[in-house]
Fold these 4 entries.
Entry 1:
Amino acid sequence: MAVNSFIPQIWEARLLANFHSRSVAELIATKPTEVQGGKAVFNRVSTVNVKDYAGTVSWDELTTAPVELAFDQKKYFAFTVHDVDKVQAAGDLIDAHTAEASASIQEAVDAYVLSLYTEAQHTIGDDTNPIALDKANVYDYIVDLGTKLSTAKVPMANRFVIVNAQVLGLLNKDARFTANPTVLENGVVEGQKINGMQVVVSENIANVDGKFKILAVHQSAIGYGKQIDSIEAIRLQTSFADGVRGLAVYGATVLRPEAMAVLTATIA
């Protein structure tokens, strides 16, 4: 086997394809306007003023305020392959080797992005006084999260509410929610919206000492970017195998805290 026949673009493409199919972060966050080396750039457009018409028109100049985000989070993967040439030639075998790596990266990225709930402008309950949820009240509290976004004039489209499996279990017992819904690979609960928010299930949202978070978020609230910094194959000196290793870098920032609402809860 000669590792100089290794084609990193093929492995990177399959790694990212597996990642995107599972990622909550890819679903709920804003993508950067551009990526410049080790950072992402987001543009925020200034507000358009609406004025009373009295026969004349004055013009406002729209400006964009770039927000730069450094990829300060770094995760690597490294695994052995008996023969990179054979795996690469087979094509479909690449997914089997990259799936676990992409899943692990996806969990780390999702947990990081969802940890930004701490900057939400709107809250219900807190770590000192969490809300005790049960099948009778869970739906209504999630409705209240959406109402907080509406009160803040957050757009109705592209809203999400991220819950854990326990909360989904309670929702299944409410007649307003479809029992036994289909959960897609990226956590989307198919066909299920509450107060205009698409329900998404993730175990990567904070859960400490039985107190967990439910996050209502508009897609404009969080900016997120990532890239595979490098991926390469080497012949291992201590094994009759090849090694494939890669470095993923990413970052996230809150762009609009008013477009997030968080509920701190326990299960009653």
Entry 2:
Amino acid sequence: MSRLESPVKCVGLLALLAAVSLFLAIRWPHIRVEGELPLREQIILLNLHALLITFLVLPAVTSLRLGEYPANSHSPPLATRLRRWFFFAVKIALIIQILSCISVSSKLIQPYVWAVYLLAFRWALIDQRQRCPVCLRLLTNPTRIGGASQTFLEWYGIELMCVKGHGLLYVPEIPTSCYRTQRWLYLDPSWRSLFP
């Protein structure tokens, strides 16, 4: 998925898939779900049901926590930090649009729409956790730090870095009392000279 490292490429691909799914939903004959309701209501109920099941099952499949991003003196302005949440909301909105259009057009997917939603939302959460909160690019160069026998006194896990030098992400291998979830460390601007 290195092609999706840029946030623009990621949203662009999702938007392209959304456009194709909308085109297919309009062009293909609509497939009715068993029942007496009109097609529009059937589609809405099918997707609401799938979303409800997804939201109930998703916490069992993946963590809903996106990590800790504590502000420090090197943190970007609030507007830059809010872009991360806007990017996540756009991804989720495009995923819902893609899957709701696909559920209209495919009788094979209709019984399993909730499972497809589950996989798509799981991907969106994992993808969001692996992005820099400043530039929204995928983080690179995973490096294992520490050892399992040292978790009591030292940090043990994986460290990823932003290729633009915005910071480092610490992902604990084993959740401990001091590192329950991944944690971001903003770097000061002097580090950016080391990055291309």
Entry 3:
Amino acid sequence: MTLSQAFSIGEREVVSLVGGGGKTTLLYALGRELSASRGGVVLTTTTKILEPAPSPSFVQFLSPDLHAIKKWTTVHAQRHRCLLLARARLPGGKLDGIPPEWVDEILSVDGVSTIVNEADGAAGRPLKANREGEPVIPGGTTLLVPVMGIDGMGRPLGEETVFRSAIASRILNIPFGSIVTEGMIARLMMEWLKGGPAGARIVPLINKVDLPDGLRKARILAGHLLEVDPDRIRSVVLSRLQKSPPVKEVRHRAAD
């Protein structure tokens, strides 16, 4: 099963990735998969991402002007199957993301079929806590994917495990060094979903299940996530994004 199949990504979707580490890897993996079967796939960010090395998988365009981006996309969506769009190149090798309201404008461009957007930053940590204004989720998002690493479960709360761990300590009302449980991860995840459109599908992804004991722990965490918001979370993807195939299994909520 591919990632796009696991998420049931259709045409005219806006996919927003939030949460912990692995989002950028997922962004490019979805770009490769989707562009193998359809044209007009756009990858972008409403935060900041590391600038990738040149790749035959996509062409890149940077501009601080929405009109210029739409004009370029109109031409190149017909010529290339996958496009990477951002606003500018920043010091330190990162790309500056576009405003969230631009996403709907870009989706309206002739030839654009799907947009995958990284809407959050986690500095590579398995988990994160939001500061005010995060994540930056476009209003037209149809699929919201909270990403988390199973290597964050069972480890002490600290900056190596949770990005902005001081905020996490306040949200969870636990001291530094407390062992991170599946319940704590679920509470952090619900913070990541704030600001997302009410009608968006939510499909969490648990990454690094190929680590020792990772699959067993991921199944426990998935069961917890499926119960935390039964109306909106009906499945959880268990993955190893650095391996092929990237999807290990999909856990579904039992029929009521």
Entry 4:
Amino acid sequence: MTYQEAIEFLFPLHRFGMKMSLENITALCSYLGNPERRLGTVVHIAGTNGKGSTAAFIASICQEAGLKTGLYTSPHVEHFAERIRINGQMIAEDIVADLTAGLKHKVQEQGATFFETITAMAFRYFAEQALDVAVIEVGMGGRLDATNVVLPAYCLITPIDYDHQEWLGDTIEKIAAEKAGIIKSGAKTIVARQRLEAMEVIVAAAKGKKSPVTIAPVVAHSQMATSTLGELAVHLKTPTRDYFGLRTPLWGMYQVENLRLATLCAEAMNLTERAIREGIRNVLRNTGHRARLEVLSRSPLVMLDVSHNPNGMEHTVATLLRHREQFNRLLVIFGAMQDKDISGMLASLLRVASKFYLVSPQIERAAKVETLAALLAETPCSYQACESVAQAIQAAKEDMQEKDALLVTGSFYVSGEAAHALNMNRVSEKVVV
């Protein structure tokens, strides 16, 4: 099987949708010899927003400490192999092909989903590579997520908000209960700042599992330092150390919560202050983490962002408002999945956007441009319907004036198509947009 043949087999598995059950992943892992039990020290991360960034911070810190570190995240921005990395290196195409070929029959027999299949593949790959640490991000929920067959030493829960209600429940308490399903007996639980109703559920779950729980904002205190656009600086005081002037290129203000959670986990792992500082500073270089208010270009200012629910978008907008003097108009290329709270996301963006370029990424779940336009029709903000993300970029290019900024946001899929169209991998001083 070639890599292309593997991708052509894997991606159509999306037709099986999402299955809230551990039956398939258990069968796949058993077929592979239970690789999920041989992943080294496992850090398992659930939550609504910030899972990917927290995972990237921890993986980067572990790499700086000299540990062989696997990182499993989802979804990808541009390339499938972004999801499965060891010490920042994406899984090789020939290994993807071999793993897919070895699982194909069992996947067909089980009717396994895309996520179940690639999770089993990641575990097999990591087990074969004799990792020191595996950082595993939950796909959706926690209790019945395909990743929830691992044996974690650390269970981290990032801020919980409304998302995937049709699967996880229609109240914060129900959603929190699903997320808290990753907590295991004997593991240490570390929890980010939460709504009170979510925190109560999580703490009760940890106590029920006899898992010692640390509430991050209670034990570690942060203070924003002077920051420039594209860099976040923060002072952090934990029970054991004072970190003056931690700096990271993940510059959204919401990253303070993720950074604090990752730091407390790293301290629990007995990692050094140097590893923590350097891991936080070098997180993009070490992990390839992308599209979290990623600055693709400074002249003109072009940013790529994957915020895809109201809470995430609210935090993105708050960061942009903090640096409002850095640009004149903000032009926004926006697309979203139809099952998301699109009105909530647009409400936040309307606080800062001057014009929208509306797109529907090339995936069945995408909201139609007409739907987005209807939501903006009665607002004072101007908008333009576009046939593709590439066309939206061209339209924005024609409209942009000196000191205007461009934000691409609303979905991983929109960011992925934009990154491909822009052919950009990392920040530069100038790019033709």
